[in-house]
């Protein structure tokens, strides 16, 4: 464990992780804490909206299937079940799609996402 003068608690150092931030890297007015800065995958930031999109698509597709089964009259399906699944699935899907650019903008604003807005990436168009 390595103790820095600006930290009150010892911070463990691990091989493979970037070094600890020293006091010169802290902007003025921040609390005096040691922070381990490491490369995090995009999944850390985008897991909730992508999960919403996946669940929304699955519920939406099941709503299409239930509506089709009701219209064909092969299986006794309640008449409202298909449209309810369609609307809930669409709501989840749209919420996830709107959440993606919000998170991307927040990450750019906080400086956690590198690159310019003109970078060609799939996440720019989502």
How would you concisely characterize the structure shown here?
The protein is 51% helix and 0% strand. It is mostly helical. It has two domains: 1-39, no CATH class; 43-125.
Written description of the protein model:
This protein has 126 residues and is mostly helical. The protein folds into two domains: 39 residues, no CATH class; 83 residues. The protein contains three helices and no strands. The longest helix has 30 residues. The chain starts with 42 loop residues before the first helix and ends with a helix.
Element layout with pairings:
Layout: H1 43-72, H2 81-110, H3 122-125
Helix pairs in contact: 1-2
Report the principal-axis shape. Answer: rod-shaped
Euclidean distance between termini CA atoms: 43 Å
DSSP helical segment count: 3
Number of domains: 2
Structural class: mainly alpha
Write down the secondary-structure element order. Answer: HHH
Main sheet specs: none
User: What Rg, in angstroms, do the CA atoms define?
Assistant: 23 Å
Q: Mean pLDDT across all residues, rounded?
A: 75
Helix content: 40-55%
Contiguous runs where pLDDT drops below 50 for at least 5 residues: 30-37
Content of β-strand: under 5%
The count of β-strands is: 0
Keywords: Membrane, Transmembrane, Transmembrane helix
Subcellular location: Membrane
InterPro entries: PIRT
Membrane topology: Multi-pass membrane protein
């Amino acid at each position: 464990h390595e103790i820095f003068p600006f930290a009150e608690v010892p911070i463990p150092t691990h091989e493979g992780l970037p070094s600890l931030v020293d006091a010169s890297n802290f902007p003025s007015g921040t609390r005096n804490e040691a922070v381990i800065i490491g490369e995090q995958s995009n999944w850390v930031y985008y897991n909730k909206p992508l999960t919403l999109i996946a669940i929304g698509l699955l519920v939406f597709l099941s709503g299409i299937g239930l509506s089709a089964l009701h219209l064909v009259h092969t299986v006794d399906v309640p008449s409202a079940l298909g449209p309810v699944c369609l609307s809930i699935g669409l709501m989840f899907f749209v919420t996830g799609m709107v959440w993606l650019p919000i998170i991307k903008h927040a990450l750019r604003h906080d400086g956690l996402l590198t690159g310019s807005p003109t970078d060609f990436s799939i996440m720019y168009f989502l």
